[in-house]
Design brief:
The complex is a heterodimer of chains A (340) and B (162). Chain A is α+β, with helices and mostly antiparallel strands and 340 residues long. Helices cover 29% and strands 28% of the residues of chain A. Chain A has 11 helices and 18 strands. In chain A, helix 4 (230-241) runs antiparallel to helix 5 and helix 6 runs antiparallel to helix 7. Chain B is mainly alpha-helical and 162 residues long. Chain B has helices spanning 2-6, 10-29, 34-51, 61-79, 85-94, 98-108, 112-123, 128-135, 139-161. In chain B, helix 7 (112-123) packs across helix 9 (139-161). Chain B starts with a helix and ends with a helix. Classes of the chains: A alpha+beta (340), B mainly alpha (162). At the A-B interface, helix 1, helix 2 and helix 3 of A face helix 2, helix 3, helix 6, helix 7 and helix 9 of B.
């Protein structure tokens, strides 16, 4: 018998193959279009990736299906990975969870893993203190006081937040490492997706492969790729965190001279961070890599007009600004934000 | 699309998932018990997502993902106590269809290459060209696997029937 039907269902029809297809069809992978996160099921049994990806697709492509989730105030399961991590001074056991207001602490030998409600996972390094600030409506907020955590989040953007002494990190993507030093300074290193860093209206959007420092009372610095020179990074720190005007101006000159095409994300952030007298130079350097869209003017950018900054961002080819415009209202539902 | 997903584009990630979910499901089903397959398939995608940045050749994504699926499924089978697989499958939700159970068992007795290809064809409903596109195998290899696998499956099913 010809194998055409077996190959691509062409005639002649093979009744035995067709019968096997019919019998086995119901074992097929179900269509992953609708998110279903049961209210009480243990997280490891949740169809979390299906849910996350279906939701991502729904939100991004279909204008939003329904993101349902366990509601309000859930404690997060903790797993001891090494040593003796503790929650409220009690050693972590198989049944330990991190409730709202509780702290997980690791010493120099301890490591732990936090299951973030079926939307992701946080690995906690030694010498770290991390607490759960809130968990409701599918949103989770941790606070990292000191130490290092690695987050892998697969929920839609804006569901997972980490407060630090100097900024709040907002998950806009997949994976990152966040470190807070004893003096409250911090650094986020993004390995996949995007992370937003915010402090009192000062925002940074950090792509995969980039890092961003943060300082107490100053907030997040300017994102920069890991492979930029130390002089480039020091110059950005001088622009972001201090220095005399002359020092800052020469730092701007160095950054503009060294900037490569992939550093457009850094240049875009500098549009609003350098002194007014330097903004024209940053505008020109960024325009040399990515011309501003029609309607985006030097005067408008110098004035910090948000819609122009957004338009130019969209033109950078890094993804549209629409997904990060909504992240500022972390505890509101999509419905309340008017996105559904 | 793989490049966009590596850069964190969620639309691309979701599209990759929708495109390859059936392939992963079928490969895992070729090795693991039915009621474990959904969880394992999720683990495969999670594992792949964590390591997507390390994939240098986007064209190799399908084969890379299939290899992850196969490895995870086989690891799971090795860790799982050797109980009667049919009983577990029955408990896993296909109890009312004993014919499906023993066809599934017959496919799993085939060599790995035939087993996976037939799962993708007969369970996941892919055509030969689609299987080649998803798994990274050449169309010729897929065709050989389908024909030889189906021939062996017919023989096994014939013996069971008789």
């Amino acid at each position: 018998m010809s194998d055409d039907y077996l190959w691509d269902r062409r005639d002649p029809h093979d009744p035995e193959v067709a019968r096997l297809e019919s019998v086995l069809r119901h074992l097929r992978m179900p269509e992953p279009h609708i998110l279903v996160l049961p209210a009480q099921a243990p997280p490891r049994r949740l169809p979390f990736l299906i849910a996350a990806l279906a939701t991502a697709a729904s939100v991004a492509l279909l204008g939003g299906l329904v993101w349902t989730h366990r509601s309000g105030g859930v404690a997060l399961p903790i797993t001891s990975v090494a040593g003796t991590p503790r929650v409220s001074s009690v050693a972590v056991s198989e049944s330990t969870t991190l409730g709202v207001g509780r702290w997980l602490e690791t010493d120099a030998q301890a490591r732990a893993s936090i299951d973030v409600g079926g939307i992701g996972r946080v690995e906690v390094d030694p010498d770290t203190r991390i607490g759960l600030v809130g968990s409701r409506d599918g949103n989770y907020r941790l606070r990292l006081d000191r130490g290092t955590m690695h987050a892998l989040i697969w929920a839609p953007p804006g569901r997972f937040f980490v407060d630090t002494p100097s900024s709040t990190a907002v998950d806009l993507g997949c994976a990152y490492t966040l470190t807070v030093n004893d003096d409250g300074t911090g650094l986020v290193r993004v390995t996949s997706g995007w992370v937003g860093f915010e402090w009192r209206g000062r925002e940074s959007f950090i792509p995969a492969g980039a890092v961003c420092p943060t300082r107490r009372q100053l907030g997040p610095g300017t994102p920069r790729y890991d492979d930029t020179s130390s002089a480039f990074q020091a110059a950005l720190d001088a622009i972001d965190f201090g220095g005399a005007p002359a020092t800052r101006s020469s730092a701007v000159a160095l950054v503009l001279a060294e900037a490569r095409e992939r550093d457009v994300v850094t240049l875009w952030h500098l549009l609003t961070r350098v002194a007014p007298a330097d903004r024209g130079r940053v505008f020109d350097r960024l325009a040399a890599f990515v011309p501003p869209p029609a309607g985006v003017t030097r005067q408008g950018i110098a004035a910090g007009r948000r819609e122009m900054l957004d338009e130019w961002w969209d033109a950078l080819g890094l993804g549209t600004a629409s997904w990060w415009r909504t992240w500022k209202q972390p505890w509101r539902t999509d419905k309340e934000r008017g996105t559904q | 699309m793989v490049r966009r997903a590596q850069a964190g584009d969620r639309e691309a990630l979701a599209a990759l998932y929708r495109r390859f979910a059936g392939m992963v499901h079928g490969v895992v089903l070729a090795h693991a018990r039915y009621h474990d397959v959904d969880d394992l398939a999720q683990e495969v995608f999670l594992h792949a997502m964590e390591r997507l940045g390390s994939l240098r050749d986007p064209a190799a994504f399908g084969g890379w993902l299939a290899a992850i699926a196969r490895t995870r499924a086989l690891d799971h089978v090795r860790r799982t106590p050797a109980t009667e697989p049919l009983a577990d499958d029955v408990q896993g939700g296909i109890a009312d269809d004993s014919e499906a159970v023993w066809i599934l068992a017959a496919i799993r007795e085939l060599p790995v290459a035939y087993r996976e290809t037939l799962m993708l064809r007969l369970v996941e409903g892919m055509t030969g060209p689609e299987i080649a596109a998803r798994t990274g195998l050449t169309p010729a290899s897929v065709r050989v696997n389908l024909c030889r696998g189906m021939s062996q499956l017919r023989a096994r099913l014939g013996r069971r029937t008789s």
